[in-house]
Amino acid sequence: MATVELIDLGAGSGVLAAGVCRELGGFFAGQNTRPTFRVWALDLWPMGPKRFFAQRDVRRFTDSLTIIKADYRDWLSADEPFPPARGLRVALASRFFNNLSDFQIDSLSPAQIPWLRDFAGSDWKNCLPSRCLGRGQPGASALLISNSRAWIGGGRTFKQVSLSQYYRGLYTLMHPQDADEPLDTPADRVFLPRRRFRRSALRNRDGGSIIERLNDWCDLIVVQDADLRPSDLRAHCDRAGLSGLVAIDMTKQLGLRGHYCYALGDSRDDALKSLDGQRLW
Ligand SMILES: C[S@@+](CC[C@H](N)C(=O)[O-])C[C@H]1O[C@@H](n2cnc3c(N)ncnc32)[C@H](O)[C@@H]1O
Prior knowledge:
The chain is of the alpha/beta class. It folds into 2 domains: about 5-100 and about 200-280, Rossmann fold, CATH 3.40.50; about 100-195, no CATH class. It is built from 10 helices and 12 strands. It has helices spanning about 15-30, 50-55, 55-60, 70-75, 115-120, 130, 165-175, 210-215, 230-240, 270-275, and strands at about 5-10, 35-45, 60-70, 90-95, 100-110, 150, 155-160, 190-195, 220-225, 245-250, 260-265, 280. The strands form 3 sheets. Strands 3-2-1-4-9-11-10-12 form an 8-stranded mixed β-sheet, sandwiched between helices. β1, α1 and β2 form a beta-alpha-beta unit. The longest helix is centred in the N-terminal third of the chain and has 16 residues, at about 15-30. It is elongated and about 70 Å long. The model has no long low-confidence stretch (mean pLDDT about 90). The structure holds S-adenosylmethionine.
C-alpha cells in the first residue's frame, strides 16, 4: 500500500485535492494497488473541505485530512510546518499566488495598444457603448469585449476596450487629481485594468523563498497560476539561489489558456525529468 501526501496551499473548498485523491486512487485501484492519501488543506478561510472528502469515492482512499486555517507565509515560516513524510509528498498551489497579484487601472494612449487597430479601425472610440448601442447605431457586434488576455506594459489585461469609460471612472476615483475632464467626453485615452505577478507572493515572512521551503518538505511542487510567467519563476529561483531545482513548464502540454502550470522538484529526481513539458532549466 503506497502513501501519497498532498499539501494543498489555498485549498478553498478542497475540491482539487479531493479530485486528485479520487482520480489517482481510482487509477491505482484499477492496477490492483491501493494508495492511501494524507492531505493538508491550508487556507486563510477554508471553505468546508470536509464535505468533499466525505464523498465515498474519496473517503475510501483518504487516510487523513488536516485543515490548517492560516496564512501560508506564517505557516511555512515555522520550523516544522508538517510531520515527516511517509510517502511521496506533493505540494499543490493552484490559482493561489495570483491572489496576491498587483492590480491597477492604466491610462493608455491608443498607440500603446498594438492590437487595438485590428479591432477598432481608425477610431477606437467607435467601440464605446455610446457610439454603438443607440438607435441607428451599429449594435452590440461593434463592441470590443473579449475575455482573451493581452500584454500591456509588463502586465496582462482583457481586451475590453468598450469598458474604457467604466475603468475610467475607477481610475478617476483612484487618481482624483487627474479628474479635470468630464467623464462624458472621452479623451483620447484608453483605460484598462492590468494585473501582474507580485514577487513577494513567493516570499516568506522572513524574506526566504516559499519555493525553497516547499522543496524542503515536499518531493514535488505543482503550481498553476494566472500571472506567474516562466521569467518570474526563473528570476525568483535565481535570486533565492535555488540551483538544485528543476522546473518543467507543462502549460502547453495541458492545453491551458490563461494560466501557467509548472512542476518543480529536486534535480536529482529522475522521475521529474520524464514529465511531459518544457524544461525551463
Ligand atoms: C482562487 S482560490 C483557489 C482554490 C483552489 N486552490 C482551486 O484551485 O480551486 C484561492 C484561495 O486562496 C486562499 N488564500 C488567499 N490568500 C491566502 C493566504 N495569504 N494564505 C492562505 N490562503 C490564502 C483564499 O482563501 C482562497 O480560498
